[in-house]
TrEMBL record:
Belongs to the cyclic nucleotide phosphodiesterase class-III family. It comes from Paenibacillus glycanilyticus. Keywords: Hydrolase, Iron, Metal-binding. It comes from the Bacteria. Residues 4-200 form the Calcineurin-like phosphoesterase domain. This is 3',5'-cyclic adenosine monophosphate phosphodiesterase CpdA. InterPro entries: Calcineurin-like_PHP (IPR004843), CNP_phosphodiesterase-III (IPR050884), Metallo-depent_PP-like (IPR029052).
Length: 273
């Protein structure tokens, strides 16, 4: 019997209209709007939506205000909460000011919400000014304390940097202190971890826990010839269903031509995930 279903989006890389960067010209917010419409039209009826980071592409306050309006529209359309975490292309101070509507600060953004007996924990793996990700000691201590009391139906953890290696992908895409985080999660009521950052679907287990990195709504990443990497026009989302007996992940691919957006040497990959 299905206990809960939620929609996982990631790497939306949105900017406000008119923002001056190559990603802004691709109107990536339109893709997120289409995803919300698709979820609604397909009658997925999730309990919540979670977006696992790289909400913006180097966003400022105006970008986060705009993204908040997109997220609020999606939340109203589906009639469910939309929760977010931060990625390496996000910035804490403008996120707090533009998205959360509070005083700007560099305070890490992490939380625990209970939805229909499930606990959704969002972690902040983004490190100021860095491409790599890690969970700081304060969050690890908070997480350990939080998980010491099980939720009624179990816990889902959302973060940007994945804990699993991606076959053939160079660079420091994996969470730097995944072992530490894994040790905190192991043996608790956590039934799934959802992540992004790698712009490709990658599903497996870590410490025996289901772990999913999703492809994202903005673009897909693919290896190209001559040691290059390319970003192609791609958009998708995952429907994660939790059953008595386990978790399933359904990957939804939105219609698109998979045209190439950018291509760059593999060494430059760290700047583009
Ligand atoms: Fe990222
Ligand atoms: Fe990304």
């Amino acid at each position: 019997m299905e206990k809960l279903k939620f929609v996982h989006l990631t790497d939306t890389h949105m900017n406000a209209p008119g923002a001056d960067n190559p990603f802004a010209k691709l109107n990536l917010a339109d893709k997120v709007k289409r995803v919300f419409e698709h979820v609604n039209a397909a009658s997925v009826k999730p309990a919540f939506v979670v977006i696992t980071g790289d909400l913006t592409h180097e966003g400022n306050v105006q970008d986060y205000e705009y993204i908040r309006s997109i997220v609020d529209e999606g939340s109203a359309l589906l009639g469910v909460p939309v929760h977010v975490v931060l990625g390496n292309h996000d910035h804490r101070a403008p996120f707090r000011e533009g998205f959360l509507k509070e005083a700007p600060s560099e305070q890490a953004y992490y939380y625990s919400h209970t939805i229909q007996g499930f606990r959704l924990i969002g972690l902040n793996s983004q490190v100021k000014g860095q491409h790599h990700g890690e969970i700081d000691a304060e969050q690890l201590a908070w997480l350990e304390e939080t998980l010491s009391t099980p939720a009624e139906h179990g816990t889902i953890v959302a973060l940007h940097h994945p804990m699993l290696n991606i076959n053939g992908m160079p660079g420091d895409h994996v969470l730097a202190n995944r072992e530490q985080l894994g040790n905190v999660l192991e043996g608790t009521d956590v039934i799934g971890v959802v992540a992004g950052h790698v712009h490709t679907n990658n599903v497996g287990t870590y410490k025996g826990i289901c772990h999913v990195a999703a492809t994202g709504t903005a673009f897909g990443g693919e290896a190209a010839e001559d040691n290059h990497f390319k970003m192609v026009d791609f958009c998708g989302y995952n429907v994660v269903s939790v059953y008595e007996e386990g978790v399933t992940v359904q990957t939804i691919v939105m219609p698109g031509m998979q045209d190439e957006f950018f291509r760059f040497p593999v060494e430059a990959l760290m700047a583009h995930n």
